[in-house]
Every structure is written in C-alpha cells, then in structure tokens.
Design a protein that fits this description.
Layout: H1 2-12, E1 22-23, H2 24-41, H3 60-80, H4 90-112, H5 114-117, H6 125-132, H7 136-165, H8 169-179, H9 196-208, E2 214-218, E3 223-229, E4 235-239, E5 244-248, H10 249-252, H11 256-259, H12 294-311, E6 312-317, E7 325-327, E8 331-333, E9 338-343
Antiparallel strand pairs: 1-9, 2-5, 3-4, 6-9, 7-8
Length: 344
C-alpha cells in the first residue's frame, strides 16, 4: 500500500487544477503498471518517470505495449475456441518474446545476486520466489500470473468509478462529506471498509462494469451443474467432458430479483438494501479461482477516491459518450475516462 500511495501522490500532482480535461484512464494504467512491477520484480518500469542508470534491455513503454497486445491476442484466441487456428501466432510470439525478455533479464539478475539481495520479508515477489526455487520458467510464469492479477484490476476499477461519479455530482458531494475526516497518512487498508458510501460506490461500479465480465472453464471430466436445467431452470444440467462453460458476470449483475429495479442506473444506495451471495456478485470472479488482486484493488481504489474527493469539490464529465467495453481478459472503457477536477 505504501508503494501505491507514493506513486499515486506523484500522479495526483499531474492533475490540472484549472478545470481542463484530463483522460485519467491511461495515467492510472501506467501508475498501476509501475506499482505492480515494483511489487513483483522490486523495481519500477519507468513509464511515468525515467529511471537513471536503467540497464534493462527493453524500455517500460515497449514492454507494456507488448503486454497489452499479448493479452488481446489471448482473449481473441480464447473467444474463437476450436477455430483459434485461423489467427496467426507469429505476431503474438514476437510480443511474448518481448515480455519474456524483460522478465528473464530481472530474474537472471536476481538469481545471480541472490545471496546479497534476498534478505528481509518486505522484498518483491521475485525475491521470495527465488528463495524457494531456481526454475526460471516457473518463476517467470508465477510473475506473469501475478501481473495479470495485479495490474488491470485496480486501474480499471478506479477509472470506471471516476467515470460513473463524474455523471453524478450529488453522489460526489456525498462522498466528499463522508471522507472529509480521513487521515490518509495514518489509515490502514482494512479501515476503508468502515466507510459505507465509499464501499458501496466501489461495489456498484463493479456491479455495473465488472473487471472480469465473463469467465470460461472446460470440463476435464463428466460433471453436473446443480441448477439451470428444466423448464424453470431448477433442474441439474449434464456437462460432458470437454464442454466449455461460460459464466457472464455482466448479465449476472443485472438480475432484478437480486439487485432490484432500474438495474442499468448507477445507484450505490441500492447496497443498503441488498445482500447478494458470493455467486450473485462476482466483480472479481468467485471460488478458488477468484482474482487474487481483489483486496489490493479495493484498498488502492479507496485510497485514490478519498485523495481525489478531499482535494476537488467538483468532478465533471467531459465525454458525452456512454461506457463501451474494450475486452481482453478484463474489460475497460474504450473511450477512456475524460473528466475535469475543480479544486475545493
């Protein structure tokens, strides 16, 4: 959390104070990429500020471009299923080589300097992994999995929430009143949960625009879903081996039996009267394979919203277009988050 606070405060100072328009989404994405990289590999990507004496073979922006293109390629191939062979892998392989190249550079450097660099419990994920194993490919796979969980979740949640709040000035004023007394220098991550409107705003943002809008699983053996079959949908469903089962969280979060009327409206107050179970609200997935970045994303998004609400009396939308999904493994607004902050 301390790393995120420091980095977000740097980004916060870049926000115009004259009411001019800023697209917050790409800035937040770069910020989260930097903080995720610090957590995973122990160093910044240098995408917001150049790093003096950087010896990396690939610069941060080139790496991030390859990373995003790799995720898009994986999403397209997964969507095509059995017909994924129609998409050439040659371009994807070039992107994978770029991603692996930077990862392997830092893994090799950490392995070579392990005895000097791996002390202390506050080290990066990389340094904790190499205490247990020296398999470079295995370590790289763990770090890639960690980056998938940690990067997009927070950036998308913050930008989606700011996008929604920019169209609800009264909700912004209410949030400012609730968080006015918070001391961001002293508050702990878990203490953000005590602020009900802040919590409900984030839940409602995740309900309308889940970070992971869908999830697919392949049955490795014959199985049965407990409900969904029959005339009323209350009978079991047989799932043969090899069947792909897709869960659509975007549709799930629009069940009026759970969430009430006016289901397309951004209404954080609905959470005062509803209590969806873990399989009815799946902003980060669910079960054993739920997104590992959920607690991190919620605490960091809370810090960002409180910081912004305390500093700016008004938040204005500067884009009349509605939210439109740009889906890879996650889904973000293809139109960005174009807003203006008015100081208080």
């Amino acid at each position: 959390m301390d790393t995120f606070k420091f980095s977000f405060d740097e980004l916060f100072n870049r926000i115009p104070r004259d009411g001019s328009t800023i697209d917050l989404q790409p800035l937040i994405s770069l910020l989260i990429a930097d903080t995720s990289f610090k957590f995973l590999l122990g160093r910044s990507l240098g995408v917001l500020d150049p790093i003096d004496g950087d010896e990396s073979p690939i610069d941060g922006k080139t790496f991030l471009k390859a990373w995003q293109l790799s995720l898009r390629s994986c999403s397209i191939r997964n969507s095509l299923g059995l017909f994924k062979f129609i998409i050439s892998k040659s371009e994807s392989i070039d992107q994978w080589k770029t991603v692996h190249g930077l990862m392997d550079f830092h893994i090799n450097r950490a392995l070579n300097g392990q005895s000097q660099d791996c002390g202390g419990s506050d080290r990066s994920l990389l340094h904790n992994l190499i205490r247990r194993d020296t398999d470079k490919v295995g370590i790289r796979n763990q770090i890639i999995q960690g980056m998938m969980a940690a990067q997009d979740t927070t950036a998308i949640l913050i930008s989606n929430t700011v996008h929604l709040l920019s169209r609800q000035p009264e909700m912004w004023r209410r949030l400012r009143r609730e968080v006015a007394s918070i001391n961001l220098d002293q508050i702990k991550a878990e203490e953000f949960k005590k602020f009900s409107l802040l919590r409900n705003i984030l839940y409602e943002s995740l309900r309308i625009y889940p970070v992971f809008p869908s999830l697919a699983r392949v049955a490795l053996r014959r199985s049965t879903l407990p409900t969904g079959g029959g005339v009323n949908g209350d009978q079991p469903v047989f799932v043969p081996t090899g069947t792909t089962v897709i869960s659509n969280f975007y549709a799930l979060h629009r069940d009026q039996d759970v969430y009430g009327e006016n289901i397309e409206a951004f209404d954080p107050d609905r959470w005062m009267n509803i209590q969806p179970n873990p399989w009815q609200f799946m902003g980060f997935g669910g079960g054993q394979r739920a997104c590992l970045g959920q607690p991190k994303a919620l605490s960091e998004a809370s810090y960002a919203l409180v910081k912004l609400a305390q500093a700016f009396k008004q938040l204005e939308s500067r884009d009349p277009r509605e939210w439109a999904g740009d889906q890879k493994l996650t889904a973000k607004n293809v139109n960005g988050c174009k807003v203006a902050f008015i100081p208080g």
